[in-house]
Amino acid sequence: MSKRRSTEGVAEFPTRQLFILSLCRISESVAFMSIFPYVYYMIASFKIAEGDHQIAIYAGMVTSAFTLAEFSTGVMWGRLSDRIGRKPVLLIGFAGTGLSMLIFGFATNLTVALIGRAVGGFLNGNMGVLATSVAEMITVKEHQRSIARAYAVMPFVWSLGSILGPALGGALAEPCNNYPNIFHRGTIFDKFPYLLPNLVCAMFIVCGVVIGLLFLEETHELKKHQRDLGLELGDWILRKIRYYISWCKAPSTNQSKVAESSWDEHQVLLFDEETQDSTPTPPTSQLSLAFSEEMPIPSCKKSFTRPVVLHIIAFALLA
Fold this sequence. Notes:
The protein is mostly helical. It has helices at residues 15-33, 39-46, 52-84, 86-105, 110-122, 126-137, 147-172, 175-178, 188-191, 195-215, 229-249, 255-278, 284-294, 300-303, 306-318.
């Protein structure tokens, strides 16, 4: 998919892609933070603790299981994104978070709760891959002055999700007690009192995955030249929506003209796609060879240079 160009011949700032990435990211932060208001009461409902101090210990284990698992697999997902692309790894991470929420919602004991949180962490390496994707979006020299603004988007979105997530989790937990007129006793929400907030969060995740699949572009230097069926489907859906809106807004006397102009536009799009397809591009094998020669992927040991280690330590102290 070719990059859009402005009238001056400079690639546009990737505002649309940052917005799409933000929509995916906020769904993940909402899901991650939603458990904190009710995790204490969830552990208490398991009836395994002898006192409040043990409930606090178990609650800490449950909340930290995700980040511990993510820490153990983060480097692996980063290296995998160098091989298969950023977009597949991001979508796997989002889907893993959704699966984690479903397992956690159906948890009736501490073991299942720990497994649910750990599954989400093992399948999620999005923290590093997201930062890499943002960096790869800002490749034009004219946009380097705005790179700080681009990097600030993801923390802002995470903070916004950190506000919405706990509010959502606290409002929807134990619905049979809080909303007895809507959620009756004897239903699935009575048996699993913390399922509802996790179901809602899983729906947020599904929306994020669908948006990413249809509209998020690959940023990997090699993989972005390959065909993306999800993007093609998303472009087709957008064209249909634009055509329907223009058809509805046009007067009935001009509907034929709108249909004709839309058909002409569709023909132009098809012609552009055929032109792009016919443009000679280096084969994937040649691109892969050039990419591997110019930018070889360092080993795991060589990746942890002194600046990287210092950055990790500083980030850990701030966290």
